[in-house]
Amino acid sequence: MEFDVLVANRRSIRDFAEGVEIPREDIEQMIECALEAPTWKNTETGRYYVVNTPDMVEKVRAEALPEFNQNSTRDAAAYVVTTFEAERSGFERDGNPTNELGNEWGAYDLGLQNQLFILKATELGYDSLIMGIRDVNALRDIFDIPESQHVVAVIALGKRREDMSKPPRKTLEKVAKFL
Predict the structure, then answer these.
(1) Which residues pair with 82 in a beta bridge?
(2) Domains of the chain, start order
(3) 103-139, pLDDT tens digit by residue?
(4) Secondary structure of the chain: what % helix, strand, coil (to 5)?
């Protein structure tokens, strides 16, 4: 798929079709694509926790998502929890932050990875919703996520129930300043 078409087709879906299954191999392709993103000093701190069986998807939905995200992802086929290893991206070898952003570089790097992840999902014919409102403690318990990792997002995967129009975006003039 041509890149501009791929980007134009990607949507945040809040109404997934029932009965969709996503094979592990497809999710592995999404993660492998995400790993191609640049990272601070090549630290590659992003980590992925995946559920794609109906029982585990329901467990995550019921125990780790607020009601509005449960409703928005009611028929999602899989959830992918994305995290990063803290105190590495944006830090020197002695453990001190390189600049005032510190761990924010880990979140930045993971955001780049997540973008590639959802674009690959789109290319493979799947849709997604990235959710930042979630119960971190429940996710840590379900997936056995170590305290050394910052939980950033839960990505719901599936296929949209119906086609959606593209919402309006801000114009270039409102977001860019050329000198």
Answers:
(1) 48, 153
(2) 3-175 (3.40.109.10)
(3) 999 999 999 999 999 999 999 999 999 999 999 999 9
(4) 40, 20, 40
Q: Model's pTM, two decimal places?
A: 0.94
Q: DSSP H helical segments within the chain, as ranges?
A: 3-9, 24-34, 54-64, 67-72, 104-123, 136-143, 172-175
Q: Are 45 and 85 in contact (CB under 8 A)?
A: yes
**Phi and psi torsions of 115, nearest 5°:** -60, -45
Let me know how long the chain is: 179
Report which DSSP code applies to 40.
G
Q: State pLDDT tens for residues 3-52.
A: 998 898 899 999 999 999 999 999 999 999 999 999 999 999 999 999 99
**Residue corresponding to tokens 């780049």:** 112
152 membership: H or E segment, kind and range: strand 149-158
